[in-house]
Structures are given as C-alpha cells and as structure tokens.
Specification:
Elements: H1 33-47, H2 67-79, H3 82-92, H4 99-111, H5 130-145, H6 153-165, H7 167-176, H8 178-183, H9 187-195, H10 199-212, H11 220-236
Length: about 240
C-alpha cells in the first residue's frame, strides 16, 4: 500500500492573498490549537451584542506563518452563507473535543453574518490621516459591489466641516462645475442644504469631486461614528 492512499496533502500557495484567492482555496487551511483559540475569541467578540464591548483581534507572526490564510478562513466562516461553510466546519471540527467551538460557531452563524471589507497591503497609507480615507474607500467599494448604496448623517457632516475649514476650495469647485452650480450657487447655500440632509446636493457634490479628481477626508475622530452609522444602515437594507 502506498502512502498516497493513507495520507492526503492539501495544496496551498506559499503566500496567501485574500484579494486574489480562487474559489474554495481557503478550505485548504489546516486548523491548529493556536488558530482555534483565535477563532473562539472572534466568535465570542462577535456574539457580544454590546457594541461598546466589541474587541478587535490582532494576529501577529513572522512572514510565512499563515496569518493571511488564517484571516481569510475567519472571514469566510463569519461572512459566507452558512451552507457554504458547514462542510468545512463539520469536517475540521468533527471530534468531540471541538464540540464547543463547532456548536458555538454554527449557532452564531444561524443569527449573524458579517459583511467583509478587505484592506490588503499598504493601501497608499503614508500618514496617520490617510487611514480614514482608505477605510472609507474600501468600505464604500465593498458596499457597492454588494449592491448597497448607503448615505449616512456623517457624510453630510464631513462636507459641512470641510466647507467651514476651506471655503475657497468650495467656491472654486462650484465655479468649475456647472451641475453643482445649478443646485447651489454659493458655499452658504451649499452648506445649508447639506445641513438639511439634502441627498440631491450630496450627489452633485460627490460627482463634482469625482470629476475634479478630489478626495475629502473624513476626520479620524468621526471615523468610528461613520462606521457604526454605515453598519446600522446596512442592517436596515
């Protein structure tokens, strides 16, 4: 009898990129006790309904130790349809010693499904203030890919704050963009309509900024509020 009839090797790449993974590639991951401990902590954090007590999970390790693949597995287990992960869970955690982890994960997934947003690599983040912009971009891209177009209160607040701090920029933008000028002739009117949560003006502002190649950065201290508002709005959709 040959070893190949007894032992099966799972195929995997030396470096895992979650943005370039092939279908089902994550299932080649071999869970160990260290990973299972991380997974149990993640399940506990997600199961907690008190948003103020949610904890981030940080996976640290040297290059090539499987951090990216482990992160991909956690993402799939928490965000894929439950029927798509059930076989992996029941095969990988079939032994009795994994009963608590297996049951807690499947019970969680019967009531909750997370929405994944991936940021891979440096993401053009050179300074601390770049983080909020890149997070906004990736969250919006993920929502658009899922067919969700969401606007929240913080979006309006962000532009109002920027108008107050850089009025000359907005005066020039209005002067350069006929569409924006047609709905708001000056910064005073623009600010007032944004404060009134006017979605027509907000759409015109976004289009004018895209045409001009401009990005307006959400202030870092508003990032958490913006994410929670997006999360709540996504749940309603």
């Amino acid at each position: 009898m040959s070893y190949s009839k007894i032992v099966t090797l799972r195929q995997m790449r030396p470096a895992y990129n979650i943005k370039e993974e092939s279908h089902g590639e994550w299932e080649s991951f071999i869970a160990n006790d260290q990973f299972n401990g991380v997974l149990q902590k993640v399940v506990s954090a997600v199961r907690n309904n008190d948003a103020d007590n949610h904890k981030s999970i940080w996976i640290a390790g040297t290059y090539g130790t499987g951090k990216s693949h482990a992160g991909a597995v956690i993402q799939h287990l928490l965000s894929d349809p439950i029927d798509d992960i059930r076989k992996y869970v029941e095969d990988e955690y079939q032994k009795e010693k994994y009963a608590v982890l297996r049951n807690s994960l499947l019970q969680l997934r019967t009531t909750k499904r997370l929405f994944p947003v991936n940021m891979y690599g440096q993401q053009n983040i050179a300074y601390e203030e770049d983080l909020s912009l890149q997070m906004q971009r990736e969250i919006k891209r993920a929502l658009m890919a899922a067919g969700l177009d969401i606007t929240v209160q913080t979006d309006f607040d962000m532009y109002v704050q920027h108008i107050e701090s850089q009025p000359q920029f907005w005066e020039n933008l209005i002067a350069q963009n006929a569409l924006l000028a047609s709905v708001t002739p000056d910064t005073k009117k623009l600010k007032q309509r944004l404060m009134d949560v006017d979605t027509v003006v907000l759409d015109s502002v976004r289009q004018a900024l895209r045409m001009g190649g401009y990005d307006i950065r959400l202030q870092s201290n508003n990032l958490q509020q913006w994410i929670f508002e997006v999360q709540n709005a996504s749940g309603e959709n």
